[in-house]
Structures are given as C-alpha cells and as structure tokens.
Design the sequence.
C-alpha cells in the first residue's frame, strides 16, 4: 500500500483521530497543535517574514480550471499592498469539474477522507509560522495572535470538525443482516447496505478578521463528510485561504485524488461572486461568517443548501458585585483591547447598576467603576509596543471610521487614541473607546458596533440589568455573556438567563481566561440557539447534516 493512499493516511493519523474523538466526549484540555512558537523549527520561524514577502507582488499558483480574470487588491492593515494575484476560475466549469470528482471522493470512504483531512491539518501545522504572517497582514491581528489564532488554534478547530465527522460516520455500519422471526414459518432475512453519501458541493465564505479560524470548521466538516469544497475568501484576506487550498491540493494529489476537491474562488468587493455561487443548484452546503444582513439573505435565498451562519450580535457583561475590583478591571481591559474588539466574542455592553456595586472595600458608585475600568485599560496599554501587539491593526477602513461615528453616542469614559507601530508607521491602530449610556437608551447599545467600541450601561439595579440584557440578547443574539457576582443566588439567575437566551456564560473571570477566548475540544463556540448564529462551532449537528445515509436491501 502506498504511503499516501487515503487508507494509509488514516492509519498514520488514527491515534490522533481516536484521541480527538475521546476528548470531544470528556471536554478536557487538549491541543494537538502547539501554540508556542518555540516548538516549531527555528529556521521556519526565522524565515517566516521573508517567506511571506516572497509571496507578495507575484501570482499565486493553484490547480484549477481555466481562469477568467486575475484578482488583486489585498492591502495589509499595517500599511502596504500585498500585490499578490490570484486566478478566478470559470465558475460553471469549476462546479462541473468538482461535481464530476465527487464520486471518487465519496468512494474513498469515511476512513480515507478523515485520513486525508488529518494529513492536510498536519501539513498546515508545519507551515504555522508562515501562516501567522499571512493572517497578520490580511486580518491586522498582532503577530502572536495571528500565529496562535490563525494557525494552531484554527487547526484545532479544523481537527475538531473532522473528529465530529468521524464520530458521526463510524457509528453507521457498512452492512447488516436483518432477520425477523415469523413464528412457525421461516424468518424474513435481508441483507442491507448503508452508504454515507455527501450532499454535494460545499461553499465556505470566509471573513476578513479570522480568515482561517472561522473557515476551517466548515471546510473540514464538509470535506470529511465527502463534499468537495469551494473556498470563497473575503477579498481583503485571500492569502491565508490560498495557502490552505494549496496544502490541501498537494495532499489530494499525492493521495491520487482530484485536486479540484478543494478549490479557491477569489473575488473583489466591487465584483463579488458569492451570491452566484450560493444560488448554484449544485451547491448543497454553505458556511458563512459575517454580517447579519448577508447571513439572513443566504438563509432566505439559498434554499437548495444547508446553510450554517455566524452573524452579528451584542455580547454582554453584567456586573452585580466583585471580589477583586482590580483583577476584574484588568481582565476586562484585556478583553476590550484584544485585537481592537474585532472578535465575534468581544464584549460590547457592560451593565452596571446606577447605585454602584459591592466590593470587599465597600460599595463603589457607577462612575467609580467606570473610572476604574478606564484606568485599568489605559495602564494596560501604556507601553506602546505591548499595546500595538495586543491591539493589532484595524482590518477595514469602515471599522476605523466607526470609532469617530460612535463618539457622539454617549459620554466618553475613555477616548480612543491612535497609536504608531514602531515597524509599520502607516498601520491603522486605535485604542478602545468606552462610552457611558443610560439603560433607557437601548437603541444605542443594542446595535452591534463592530470594533473597539463598548458601552457602560447604567441600569436601575441588577434585576434591571438582567431584564435589559435578556431583551437585547433575545432580539440581537450573542456569542458570549459574562456575569460578575459574589452572590450564589445571583449566579444561579445568570445561569438561567444564559439557558433562556441560549448563549455561552462566563462567571467571575478575573485571571488568565477571558470572555472572548474559546478553546477547541472544550468550549462550544456559539450555540446556534440565538440570532447571532444558527450553528455551533462545533458539535454533532454542525457535521451530521452534511451527509445522508442511503441504504439498499435485498432478500437472502
């Protein structure tokens, strides 16, 4: 058996896959791909920047059908054009080619497919230092975050999807002998076969801020279950997707499989092709991360496909009381600063009673809490080099403009400052804007304001905070909810609230874990139960509907 057949790849990676499935059921800490850059070959870490620059200002070559045009236009949020060009394939020809390749991928079997997927992920892990550079200069994330979130953490999520797919598929037997007793007569005996059949071509629509982390779950869930995948990256973040497709195509080719099974379709914001792809009758699965407007359009119009969406929401924190004010405000300062609030998990609304909160040092007023948070944030970002590393750069000009637009929405508690990066003087870097608003001004804080903008909402009481948060979360949805209280009864109320609005809850975070972080194999990212997302990354439901079981039977 060749060392690169799908079956051989499954045997090579079976221990990894078995462990991944085991951890899915225990939810304990496990990460197969190291987030420590020192664990990677020193020469790859040192050459990553030059390797990235070598990809700029030239064509990026991939296997595909005939090209209709060249796509360019990526610009680093750190202030320079990438200049990389990509072929946009003829869409109809690509869909026809992928559809023709589907039976071979289906017939590779569940074991073969998950083996190929595991090999792709392993090779992506090997190029993590380069991927970190590519994610940094398309998303704007600081280098360490771009490396961790864009490479090993994204790979973790990809493997998690593969493990869920493998767990779901291996529970279905290939065949069965069915015998039904008939009393004194001979039993009815049938032989049955069960075929795992993919739905069809899958489309993954990437986002600009997390071009791999938000792409890999859908990509690998669809691929493992037998669906050829079109990767349609955001026009501003094509390179990380292109690198991913290149690795996938290399593995497929070595395994004797059609390289078109994973294909790239880049476009521009001026001439988008997502709607055309999404409405193609051969596209049966769609994964999307982005605005609610387009996510809702996909759900309403791409009726021929199973559509998985992660959209906008209003992540919230409720402050009732704290056991350590300094630790809490320090934790929140990091939460609001990380990647300039450009995370789907970053808190936007912080509910605090007008008459203040209890602390071990006594009761402090709403304004005193606001000042403590502003001071903690300013102190955390006082070192400019550290600030630039944590804040990263603003990915889009629209997000940068939103900071100015939001200044008039409330009383400024902490104004946003522009910072200069020592290495990239043209980078778009801004500190958080924190505003004070009244709980009655719900229209102001109940709309997502993507970027480094958050609201301290003055409420009548903790009961009022719970009521307002419930209303906003029901209407707008959220990925995360935080709650701070030293009262066990209040913590139980928060748990009830979280279940009611179907959002992940974090209680009393005041250490090294932050509400906007999500750990693969343990944390479910989104629930699929509120308007912010119709699916969870990842659970069984995320993968199981990407294939169907077709049975055949005959009398023995």
Sequence:
């Amino acid at each position: 058996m060749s060392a690169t057949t799908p079956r051989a790849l499954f045997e090579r990676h079976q221990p990894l896959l078995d462990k991944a499935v085991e951890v899915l059921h225990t939810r304990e800490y496990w990460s197969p791909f190291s987030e420590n850059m020192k664990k990677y070959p020193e020469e790859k870490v040192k050459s990553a920047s030059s390797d990235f620059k070598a990809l700029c200002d030239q064509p990026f070559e991939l296997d595909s059908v005939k090209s209709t045009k060249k796509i360019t236009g990526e610009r680093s949020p750190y202030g320079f054009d990438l200049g990389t060009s990509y072929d946009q394939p003829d869409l109809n020809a690509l869909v026809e080619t992928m559809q023709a390749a589907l039976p071979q991928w289906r017939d590779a079997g569940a074991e073969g497919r998950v083996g190929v997927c595991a090999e792709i992920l392993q090779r992506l892990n090997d190029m993590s230092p380069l991927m970190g550079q590519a994610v940094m200069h398309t998303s704007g994330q600081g280098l360490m975050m771009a490396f961790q979130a864009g490479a090993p953490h994204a790979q973790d999520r990809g493997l998690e999807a593969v493990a869920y797919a493998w767990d779901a598929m291996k529970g279905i037997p290939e065949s069965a002998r069915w015998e039904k007793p008939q009393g004194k007569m001979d039993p009815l005996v049938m032989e049955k076969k069960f075929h795992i059949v993919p739905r069809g071509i899958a489309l993954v629509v990437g986002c600009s801020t997390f071009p791999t982390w938000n792409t890999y779950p859908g990509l690998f869930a669809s691929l493992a279950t037998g669906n050829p995948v079109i990767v349609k990256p955001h026009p501003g973040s094509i390179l990380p997707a292109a690198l991913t497709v290149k690795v996938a195509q290399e593995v497929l080719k070595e395994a004797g499989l059609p390289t078109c099974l994973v294909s790239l379709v880049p476009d521009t914001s001026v001439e988008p092709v997502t709607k055309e792809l999404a409405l193609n009758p051969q596209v049966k699965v769609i994964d999307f991360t982005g605005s609610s407007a387009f996510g809702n359009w996909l759900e309403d119009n791409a009726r021929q496909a199973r559509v998985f969406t992660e959209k906008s929401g209003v992540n919230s924190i409720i402050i009732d009381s704290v056991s350590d004010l300094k630790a809490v405000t320090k934790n929140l300062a990091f939460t609001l600063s990380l990647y300039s609030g450009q995370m789907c998990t970053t808190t936007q609304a912080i509910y605090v009673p007008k008459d203040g909160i209890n602390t071990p040092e006594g009761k402090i007023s709403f304004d005193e809490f606001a000042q403590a948070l502003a001071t903690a944030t300013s102190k955390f970002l006082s070192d400019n080099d550290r600030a630039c590393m944590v804040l990263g750069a603003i990915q889009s000009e629209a997000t940068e403009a939103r900071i100015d637009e939001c200044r008039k929405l409330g009383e400024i508690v902490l104004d946003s400052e522009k910072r200069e990066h020592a290495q990239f003087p043209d980078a778009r870097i801004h500190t958080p804007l924190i505003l004070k608003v009244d709980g009655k001004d719900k229209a102001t804080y109940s709309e997502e304001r993507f970027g480094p903008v958050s609201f301290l909402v003055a409420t009548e009481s903790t009961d009022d905070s719970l009521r307002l948060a419930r209303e906003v979360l029901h209407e707008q949805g959220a990925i995360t909810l935080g709650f701070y209280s030293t009262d066990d009864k209040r913590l139980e109320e928060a748990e009830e609230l979280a279940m009611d609005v179907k959002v992940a809850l974090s209680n009393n975070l005041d250490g090294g874990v932050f509400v906007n972080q999500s750990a693969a194999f343990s944390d479910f990212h989104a629930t699929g139960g509120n308007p912010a997302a119709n699916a969870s990354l990842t659970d069984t439901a995320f993968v199981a509907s990407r294939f169907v079981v077709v049975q055949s039977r005959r009398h023995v």
User: Anything to note?
Assistant: The CA atoms of residues 481 and 505 lie 5 Å apart. The first strand starts at residue 59 and ends at 60.
